[in-house]
Design a protein that fits this description.
The complex is a heterotrimer of chains A (323), B (321) and C (501). By secondary structure, chain A is mainly alpha-helical. Chain A is 73% helix and 1% strand. A two-stranded antiparallel ribbon of chain A has the order 1-2. Chain A starts with 7 loop residues before the first helix and ends in a 7-residue tail after the last helix. Chain B is mainly alpha-helical and 321 residues long. Chain B has a single domain, classed as ABC transporter involved in vitamin B12 uptake, BtuC, CATH 1.10.3470. Helix content of chain B is 74%, strand content 0%. The two termini of chain B are 22 Å apart. The N terminus of chain B is likely disordered. Chain C folds into 3 domains: 233 residues, Rossmann fold (3-Layer(aba) Sandwich), CATH 3.40.50; 174 residues, Rossmann fold, CATH 3.40.50; 69 residues, no CATH class. A 6-stranded mixed sheet of chain C has the order 6-9-10-3-11-12, with helices on both faces. Chain C is globular, with a radius of gyration of 24 Å. Chain C starts with 6 loop residues before the first strand and ends in a 9-residue tail after the last helix. The chains are: A mainly alpha (323), B mainly alpha (321), C alpha/beta (501). Chain B: The complex is composed of two ATP-binding proteins (LsrA), two transmembrane proteins (LsrC and LsrD) and a solute-binding protein (LsrB). Chain B: It is found in: Cell membrane. Chain B: It comes from Mesorhizobium ventifaucium.
């Protein structure tokens, strides 16, 4: 027993050191250090910057997912919503507004509405979140093919291109966007009554309702947020890609859930933080990059990806028994 | 509903218990019957031998995956790897059956893979205490990857006589389904089988009562895996070849069928007969849409709407009451 | 007695996360004796039961069966050794039938399959012992809480135990059911079964038991014959000081103004009820378990749909449409099942105490952790909740958990408190504190509605008691007319009735 552990500051430091978000950060750091020794070019600033830029997309999708999971739900429609955003944006005319802002806002309004519909189903119709959002994903999948057909559409919207490619002060605009969203998300989650309600609803919805937490409106808000951040991710991925096509959002379903869980948020709800999801997203991108370096067939890549996530879960994702 | 009254009649227990289990699914059975009648009315071909064979064949794999999902949900688990397991079963069947292993060897390989992977998943979820939804999501990548390794693109072959037997003009699918249901009844009459419900709904209480909770849950995952790869074999026989992503749609449909059939997400709620009825209902809807000339795209849209509607309406009524 | 005890613990200790819960405790269960285990909540009774039944393993000491130490005790081994436990938290599965629940884990088999005819015979025999007449095929989920408790007892008897452990078996039973149980235990004792009986109801213990072990803070403070002791002496041993009176002395403070007034009120099982709740009174709600009392509270609170011809609630002229609305009208509700409905067990005590505040503040208002901590400290000091407030609520004993569930409403100064069995499974000391709080609350001109299954509580604490039977208020007893007999006879109706299942 050393004395510093007994001081207030020492206790607080210990809490942080033992916390799950910190563990995830430590894993990311370790992987980066090892990988940059093993693979030349991995540790280069440009490469790491690129990784964080890719992580921004996952991070945005996972922001909404973190809200939903903490509140005791799950959103399996995020991938479809990303695609909706990336496919419908190029179809919107932006000529009337030379900045392209109106089109982006219109698309975000659309995706938020989709999220709100999810919320309506969960809160008012009492459909289980997994069913509601899966059905929504199926529904959107059909709708997308009707709207966009099979072909890719090119984005000409100047704002979208800027978000995807600009580097003010050497930092990708997408990363700046992610930082801004992260600050807002963390504040909403941990510094407002709204955030406190989410944790209560996730841990024990019945007790939360009997304590006066407005169940319906909070649920609506949570799924609305998820629709919004997925839409934002769609805008970013469209800007980075230049083109939108059906299926562009598909990788982000598992990625968003994995980032949330790897970051230490309980999939059962009620416990967690977006501060863990952020390194979780970066960790995922790093894994994917390493797998690409290995240069394996799609089958092996898929197996490696799944196994690594499973391995990381074993390391950090145990759920304590509840009840 | 008092089928047995006094202690004198205590000897008759099994059938009254079964009758009580029907109470919750009576409404569903009525809806399914109505759909069947309407379907038979629209397409009188259903009542010919070939029409019946075709219909049961389109239902069969969905029925299997619905059972596979339901057995997990009864124990309080879930699987998002159902589709990948079906694909894996299909590619294994398509690559082994015409090879040196032959049909029997191939079928054994399919079954062992299902039990093995299912059991391993169960072990990870139950013994290592990882959340089922994340494990099976990651597992779907591993299993899907394995399917791609075995068969990178659609190909392989199923012996023609097997295809004809299972998916030709025979009632084989229906007979198999009846057999599987009987086997399930038998399993449910073993102490391990009935423990499924207790393990799902009240694991602590079940453990204290001396129920092998962990064993019951791992066994459920193994059985679920077997049902999935079995469905894969059948799908391969239907198409005559293997396809590494053919099972993808089954993940959603298995959950939808189970939930339509009244299986709850919290464990221990619902019955297998409900899940089967749910899968039949879903299968009927898909067939009807197909015959009415819906494009595949419109089918997606309609299916999404129908699932939400079917789940929401009973819930909504409950809230209103 | 020369014979070895059937089941015994010798100097067992157990800690959770470094907190010692039991220290060097010994207990010996002899055949043909009803042995009482007493102690406040958190004294370690449940842990001791779990050790005796193999659900937990001791850190030190040994469990002995027939005088021989058993090193790896498991629930399965305990069952083989003839030890059956009736847990406080039921071990039943709602979707299985009565018979399937009774046999769970010990089914009779034929060819490896469950032998339904044999199960029916044996389950029926067990049910007859406890007076369960429902068909064996009824799913347990369709039974009331009291009947489920009886199924749980039948389940223990089905195993033909030599040792029967009952953890608060009567807390959800009606008077009739309690009587059946008492007679049954007397008979089993006569057959030479060793019984360990845990209860907070001292009169039951005095009537039924011969020997008592008392735990206080994880240590044994008494292990003696019950002969020659009185209830007061037992309480002294449990709390470590003189008991005094359980119920406070109080002056009526009731006014003529109504806090809540409803006409033709219907919700859940309640049908067309007229009720006036006055400010400054404690209104008791009594009756057999499951007659609709809970629906009355939940309906007033806006938690379940309710209809009424007219309603006045703290000045507003309609029922609240939802819980947030009810809170705004000054209503607060304390549920009976604190683990499932009252608390967020995995969250800190502070968060639990602050939840109603979070629920009613504007959603995007920034929190002040410092202010939250100060409020929570104040509440904890006021209610005597000791220790680190950052601990999760599940670390608290039942009594302290109930205090938290009550305390969280205090900063909002509710005008009417709706309490659903607030002292169920709560130790004597906490009970007394809660009673004081309720009377003080009424004295401050607020209204208190106290739903209780503990009849003495209704008699000694309430200004009036409304007795509910089959969804109607069948009697409104004024303080002068209050007695346990009056409440029970009103609850049962003119003739003795079966409890509706």
């Amino acid at each position: 027993m050393t004395a510093w552990k007994e001081t207030v500051g020492g206790r607080r430091a210990l809490t942080i050191l033992r916390s799950r978000p910190f563990l995830t950060v430590a894993i990311v750091a370790a992987v980066w250090i090892v990988a940059s020794f093993v693979s030349r070019g991995f540790g280069a600033y440009g490469h790491l910057r690129y990784l964080v830029e890719l992580a921004a997309v996952i991070g945005l999708v996972a922001a909404g997912q973190t809200f939903v999971v903490i509140a005791g739900g799950i959103d399996l429609s995020v991938a479809a919503i990303v695609t909706v955003s990336a496919v419908s944006l190029p179809l919107l005319s932006w000529q009337a507004d030379p900045t392209g802002l109106t089109a982006v806002l219109a698309v975000l309004a659309l995706t938020t509405t989709i999220g709100l519909v999810n919320g309506l189903g969960v809160a008012l119709l009492r459909v289980h979140p997994m069913i509601m959002t899966l059905a929504m994903a199926t529904f959107l999948q059909g709708l997308l093919i009707i709207i966009a057909g099979g072909s890719a559409v090119t984005a000409e919207n100047p704002l979208v291109r800027w978000i995807g490619n600009a580097r003010p002060a050497g930092i990708p605009a997408g990363v700046l966007l992610w930082v801004a969203v992260s600050v807002i998300v963390l504040a909403a989650m941990h510094a407002t009554s709204f955030g406190a309600r989410l944790f209560a609803m996730g841990a024990n919805p019945l007790a939360a309702t009997l304590s006066g937490v407005p169940f319906a409106s909070t649920t609506l808000a949570v799924y609305g947020i998820s629709g919004f951040t997925s839409g934002l991710a769609g805008v970013l991925v469209l800007g980075m890609n230049g083109q939108g096509y059906v299926g562009i959002g598909d990788p982000y379903l598992l990625a968003s859930i994995a980032a949330v869980v790897l970051g230490g948020t309980s999939i059962l709800g009620g416990l967690g933080t977006y501060a863990g999801t952020i390194p979780g997203a970066i960790l995922l991108v790093t894994i994917t990059a390493l797998i690409t370096v290995v240069n394996a067939s799609p089958g092996w890549r898929s197996i490696l990806f799944g196994s690594l996530i499973l391995g990381l879960l074993l390391l950090s994702g145990r759920e304590q028994a509840r009840r | 509903m008092s089928t047995v009254g006094s202690s004198r009649q205590a000897g008759a227990l099994y059938w009254p218990v079964q009758l009580r289990r029907n109470v919750g699914v009576r409404g569903l059975f009525a809806v399914v019957m109505a759909f069947l009648v309407a379907y038979g009315f629209l397409f009188p071909g259903l009542f010919t031998a070939s029409g019946f064979a075709k219909f049961t064949q389109s239902w069969f794999p969905l029925a299997l995956v619905a059972m596979a999902q339901a057995i997990l949900m009864l124990t309080g688990g879930i699987s998002l790897a159902i589709g990948a397991m079906v694909s894996l079963g299909a590619v294994i069947a398509a690559t082994t059956m015409t090879g040196p292993l032959g049909v029997a060897g191939g079928a054994t390989a399919v079954a062992l893979t299902g039990v093995g992977i299912g059991g391993a998943t169960g072990f990870i979820v139950v013994k290592l205490r990882l959340p089922a939804i994340v494990v099976t999501l990651a597992g779907s990548f591993i299993i899907g990857g394995a399917a791609l390794l075995i068969l990178p693109r659609p190909g392989g072959a199923i012996p023609e006589w097997l295809s004809d037997l299972l998916a030709g003009n025979t009632p084989a699918a229906f007979v198999l389904l009846v057999l599987i249901v009987l086997l399930w009844k038998l399993y449910l009459a073993t102490p391990l089988g009935l423990s499924l419900y207790a393990a799902g709904e009240n694991p602590v209480g079940a453990y204290r009562s001396g129920v092998p909770v962990d064993g019951a849950r791992v066994a459920a995952y193994a059985i679920s895996g077997l049902l999935c790869t079995g469905a894969g074999l059948f799908v391969a026989a239907q198409t005559g070849s293997g396809d590494p992503i053919i099972g993808t749609a089954f993940t959603l449909n298995s959950i939808a069928a189970a939930v339509l059939g009244g299986i709850g997400f919290l464990g221990g709620q619902g019955t297998m007969r409900g899940a089967l009825a749910g899968s039949l209902l879903l299968s009927l809807m898909i067939s009807v849409m197909f015959f009415l000339g819906f494009t595949p795209v419109a089918q997606y849209v309609a299916q999404g709407l129908i699932i939400i509607g079917a789940v929401a309406i009973p819930q909504f009524r409950k809230v209103q009451r | 007695m020369a014979t070895a005890p059937l089941l015994a613990a010798r100097g067992v200790s157990k800690s959770f996360f470094g907190n010692p819960v039991l220290r060097d405790v010994s207990i010996a269960l002899q055949p043909g004796r009803v042995h009482a285990l007493l102690g406040e909540n958190g004294a370690g009774k449940s842990t001791l039961i779990n050790l005796l039944s193999g659900a937990l393993r001791p850190d030190g000491g040994a469990i002995e069966v027939d005088g021989r130490p058993v090193w790896r005790m498991t629930p399965a081994y305990a069952q083989q050794a003839g030890i059956a436990v009736v847990q406080q938290e039921l071990s039943l599965t709602a979707s299985l039938s009565i018979a399937e629940n009774i046999g769970l884990g010990a089914y009779p088999r034929r060819f490896g399959l469950l032998d339904y005819p044999e199960l029916a015979v044996r389950a029926r025999a067990a049910c007859d012992l406890v007076g369960l007449r429902e068909p064996l095929s009824v799913p347990v989920g369709h039974l009331s809480l009291g009947r489920r408790q009886m199924v749980e007892i039948a389940k223990a008897l089905y195993r033909r135990p030599r040792v029967l452990i009952l953890d608060e078996p009567t807390s959800s039973l009606s008077a009739t059911e309690t009587k059946v149980l008492t007679e049954l235990l007397e008979r089993l004792r006569g057959e030479g079964i060793a019984i360990l009986y845990i209860s907070h109801r001292l009169n039951e213990v005095m009537a039924l038991c011969q020997h008592v072990t008392i735990l206080k803070d994880g240590a044994c403070t008494a292990d003696r014959s019950l002969e020659g002791t009185d209830a007061g002496g037992l309480v002294r041993l449990m709390v470590g000081r003189d008991p005094g009176d359980l119920f406070p002395q109080w002056q009526a403070s009731v006014s003529t103004a109504n806090a809540i007034s409803v006409r033709n009120f219907s919700a859940g099982l309640m049908r067309d009820v007229d009720l006036d709740i006055r400010t400054g009174e404690v209104l008791g709600i009594g009756g057999l378990v499951g007659q609709g009392q809970e629906d009355l509270l939940l309906g007033l609170y806006g938690a379940i749909p309710a209809r009424t011809a007219s309603a006045t609630i703290n000045g507003a002229s309609s029922l609240p449409s939802g819980v947030p609305k009810a809170n705004a009208l000054g209503l607060a509700y304390v549920p009976a099942d604190r683990k499932r409905e009252g608390l967020h067990l995995i969250h800190s005590i502070i968060t639990n105490m602050m939840l109603p505040a979070f629920a009613r503040l504007p959603a995007l208002k920034l929190r002040s952790r410092r202010a939250e901590r100060e409020t929570a400290r104040g509440l904890a000091a006021q209610l005597g909740i000791k220790g680190d407030l950052d601990r999760p609520a599940q670390a608290l004993s039942g009594g302290n958990q109930q205090k938290v569930a009550l305390a969280k409403w205090m900063p909002h100064h509710p005008l009417a408190l709706l309490l659903n069995d607030p002292t169920r499974g709560v130790d004597v000391e906490t009970k007394r504190e809660i009673y004081m709080m309720l009377r003080n609350f009424a004295a401050a001109g607020k209204a208190v509605v106290l739903l209780s299954s503990d009849t003495p509580e209704l008699v000694h604490l309430c200004d009036r008691v409304a007795v509910v039977r089959e969804g109607h208020i069948v009697a409104m007893l004024e303080r002068g007319a209050l007695s346990e007999e009056a409440i029970v006879s009103a609850a049962m109706g003119a003739e003795q009735r079966q409890v509706a299942a």
